[in-house]
Hints:
NADH Oxidase, globular, single chain, 7 helices, alpha+beta
Amino acid sequence: MELIECLEKRCSVRDFTKEDVPDDILMGALWAANLAPSAGNQQSRDFIIVRDADIRYHLAKAAHDQHFLSEAPVLIVCCANMDRIIMYGSRGRELYCLQDVAAAIENMLLYVTCKGYGSCWVGAMDEKRVAKILLLPPHVRPVAIIAIGRARRSCSKPPRVEIERLVHWEKW
């Protein structure tokens, strides 16, 4: 599948089959994530792969009861690593590491779409609960939970704002 096809096909999947996601697909997604740009090439992001049903259940609860997370065959919790962005001070901790994680997530989502899998980026969560469930060290902040699996059915994409309304040339 060409990149533009993957971009157009990607949508948020919230209904997955029970089919597992092979390790080579997961590692490919993480490889693609790590190719994303990062501030100062610090790569201030870490990823936790979760297949365990009990942990998926607790993560779904911590994500404000988004139960589809417990039904996806695999979750990847994407985290900002504050130790790896320390050279940029507070701006690094408050912004750059989040940008690093977001860029990595988008690469991951496009990769799995190109490989025929569905995904959903979930940012709504109780970070402290997620950190406790995953035993995260204090310098690691959970930013998003990505559900990955085979989509049970095709999803429809929400309408997009016309590009002409979003783009400004030279000034606002």
